[in-house]
Structures are given as C-alpha cells and as structure tokens.
Amino acid sequence: MAESSTQTDSTSAESTTSAAADQASSSAASVDTQKVASEAQSELLKSLGFDNKDELQSLVDAHNKEVAANQTELEAKSGELDKATTKLSKAESERDNAMAQVAALKQGVDNDHLNDAIALAKADLTSKVNGVKTIDDALAGVLERNPSFKGEQGTTGTAVANQNLGGGAQIAVPDLSKISYAEATKLKLEHPDVYAQAAAKLSK
Fold first, then answer.
1. Global model pTM greater than 0.70
2. Tens digit of pLDDT for each residue in 84-102?
3. Cα separation of 165 and 176, whole Å?
4. Of the given ranges (31-40, 134-143, 159-168), which has the lowest mean pLDDT?
5. How far apart are CA 153 and CA 169, in angstroms?
6. Which of 58, 60, 94, 182 yields a CA-CA distance of 20 to 30 A from 141?
7. Which residue ranges make up each domain of the chain?
8. Source organism's superkingdom (predicted)?
9. Whole-angstrom Cα distance, residue 191 to residue 24?
10. From its phi and psi, is residue 49 left (phi > 0), alpha (psi between -120 and 50) or beta?
11. How many Å apart are CA 71 and CA 38, to the nearest integer?
C-alpha cells in the first residue's frame, strides 16, 4: 500500500515538472525578439536625445555635409595661398633683380655686361665666395676680376679668379674643377665651344 502511494507521488511530481517546462518553453517561444530589440533601440535613442532613428541619421548626414564643405573650402584656400606665394616669390625675384641692376650701374657696369655681372654676382653671393654677404660686395668682387665689365679698354676679363671666361677679346679655357656649378652652367650656355674644351681637358 505504501509502495503504491510512493509511485503515485512520483508520477504527480513528474507531471508537474513537465507542465512547468512546457509553460516555460511556450513563454520563451512567445517572446518577440524584434520587438525587444526595437524597444532597446528606442530607449537608446531617447537617452541620446532623439525621438527616432531618422533624427539621428539626419544629424549624421548634416555633419558629413559640413565636413565635406569645410574640406572644399580648405582646398580652395590652400590653392589661393599657393597662388599668392607664387606671386610673392615672383615679385621678390623682380625686386632683387632691380636692386642688383641699380647696384651694378652704380658701380659702373656698362649695359652690355650688366646681365653677366649680375649673374656672376648672384652666383658668388649664393656660394658666399670670399665671404660676401650683399649683392654690392659680390659685384665688387666680380668687377675686380672683370674690369672690362665697366667698359675699360686694354684689360682681360675673368669671370672667376685666375680664369678668363668673358669680357676680353679671347676666352681662356677654364679648369671646371675650380669654378662653381653656376659659373660652369653659364659658360656652357654662353660659350659652348669653350665649355667643350674645358670638359675635354678635365677628362684627361
């Protein structure tokens, strides 16, 4: 009799457990995951101050447009700055040339040798030959080596010390290893035959 009662109680417990499991399974199946996700998104948007996703997207789009506009404006300003810098460099170059011409004329350079004297003076100034720091000092050095640039007769001009590159009736073949790159380039442009002889002499 006791055994029968125990079996009955066990069967009842199993039924109860099974019913609870079925109810839990049914409850889980009835959960709308999409709804839960939507509600979570809505709460997040509200915490950020937006009523819906479209408001947030509108703000993002507006920000992206502003960034693009600023980028375009920045590129435009950069282009304008480049143009202004180019104009300024050109103006400074023209000013420097004008000042060099005035300095050369003051030191007695004649018009026929004006460009040559200025070119050599600028080369000396760039290379800091003999420590020159101004165009006036550089011109003085050039004229000391090339007195013919002042229109003096009976003198032999030398573009660089101990070398005759112009200004006299004859042009001696210079040692390319002893003159600057700027002077060698000038020689090549103005006296290609002399430059060829100097190059051949250097290669021997």
1. no
2. 888 888 888 888 888 888 8
3. 11
4. 159-168
5. 10
6. 94
7. 50-99, 107-203
8. Bacteria
9. 104
10. left
11. 36
